[in-house]
């Protein structure tokens, strides 16, 4: 299989093209952009300015979508210790959080002294959604360039529950721990509004409604939320504009008692469903759902190409996949 000689994107990735040197169009586009560090600084400054404007005006400054993985753990630390924000950590329990990740969350939120809410929807509901996500092509191909179908359903819950909670609790910021490869710098500081959220929510809600109808309602924004544009928060993923070094992150969060779970796949430090979702995605679309993220990390020099290829080629843990399938009744 042909793979970009600069990053790790394979020829099976949607809309990829290679030049005569074997470099992909994503890499060529990135090269033509302005100085990366300068761009990052711009977003960091923007974030600092907005934080200054809103900090301390509400009982909680920022809600952090907390998966218990290394990146969101580090995001909690940064926002609490470096930006001095009062935080609320919110975890969406999809029924597949690694027990070690749950322990990590407990330790970290206690050490950093942060309020923590865990929302765990009924498993029967989640099961229906995950099974449908596994079987059908629920989402557009474009949506599945960045994540598997199961992951996309799960992230939809995380996003809408975070947003909904922030609006209800008058919290001006919602932060995510996306790595610089997972989400673009361009959207790293973004003011939301009803129109924007309505249109993004619709795509997912329509898909999920086909499976579970009105049962989806409690987890998404409703018409009364959309009537309060002044309460719509800023979304941010600070790891896009801060220094990102995986080793340094792991070193830091170990200080809070965080331990790497040994039951998850190499691309996740919290979710047991991920290995199954990845395997399915590779069978259905012939590229790894983490390819774009890892390519981004390699392109920006955060990860070596060798390490990136290693992660994408590592076989899934079959024991875990077997357990997941059983739990989903597949
Ligand atoms: Zn490339």
From TrEMBL:
Record has Repressor as a keyword: no
- The keyword Cytoplasm appears for this protein: no
| UniProt keywords, alphabetically | Queuosine biosynthesis
GO terms classed as biological process: tRNA queuosine(34) biosynthetic process
Could you name the domain of life of the organism this protein comes from? Bacteria
Record-linked PANTHER family: EXSB FAMILY PROTEIN (PTHR43169), NAD_GMP SYNTHASE DOMAIN-CONTAINING PROTEIN (PTHR43169:SF2)
Q: Report the protein name in the record.
A: FAD synthetase
Organism of this sequence: Desulfofervidus auxilii
Lineage of the native species? Bacteria, Pseudomonadati, Thermodesulfobacteriota, Candidatus Desulfofervidia, Candidatus Desulfofervidales
């Amino acid at each position: 299989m042909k793979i970009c000689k600069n990053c790790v994107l394979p020829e099976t990735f949607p809309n990829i093209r290679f030049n005569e040197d074997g470099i992909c169009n994503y890499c060529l586009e990135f090269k033509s952009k302005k100085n990366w560090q300068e761009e990052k600084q711009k977003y960091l400054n923007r974030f600092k300015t907005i934080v200054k404007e809103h900090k301390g005006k509400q009982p909680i400054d920022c809600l952090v979508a907390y998966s218990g993985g290394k990146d969101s753990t580090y995001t909690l630390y940064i926002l609490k210790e470096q930006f001095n924000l009062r935080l609320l950590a919110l975890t969406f329990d999809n029924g597949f959080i690694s027990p070690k990740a749950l322990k990590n969350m407990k330790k970290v939120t206690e050490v950093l002294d942060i309020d923590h809410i865990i929302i765990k929807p009924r498993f029967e509901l989640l099961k229906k959604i995950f099974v449908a996500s596994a079987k059908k092509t629920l989402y557009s191909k474009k949506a599945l360039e960045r994540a598997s179908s199961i992951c996309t359903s799960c992230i939809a819950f995380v996003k809408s529950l975070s947003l909904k909670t922030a609006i209800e609790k008058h919290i001006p910021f919602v932060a995510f721990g996306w790595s610089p490869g997972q989400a673009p710098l361009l959207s790293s500081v973004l003011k939301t509004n009803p129109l924007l959220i309505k249109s993004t929510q619709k795509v997912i809600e329509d898909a999920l409604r086909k499976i579970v109808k009105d049962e989806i309602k409690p987890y998404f924004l409703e018409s009364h939320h959309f009537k309060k544009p002044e309460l719509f928060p800023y979304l941010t993923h600070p790891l896009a504009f801060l220094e990102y070094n995986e080793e340094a992150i792991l070193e830091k969060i170990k200080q809070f008692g965080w331990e790497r779970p040994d039951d998850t796949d190499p691309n996740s430090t919290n979710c047991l469903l991920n290995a199954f979702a990845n395997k399915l995605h590779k069978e259905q679309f012939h590229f790894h759902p983490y390819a774009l993220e890892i390519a981004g990390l390699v392109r920006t020099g955060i990860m070596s190409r060798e390490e990136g290829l290693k992660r994408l080629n590592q076989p899934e843990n079959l024991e875990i996949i077997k357990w997941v399938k059983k739990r989903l009744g597949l």
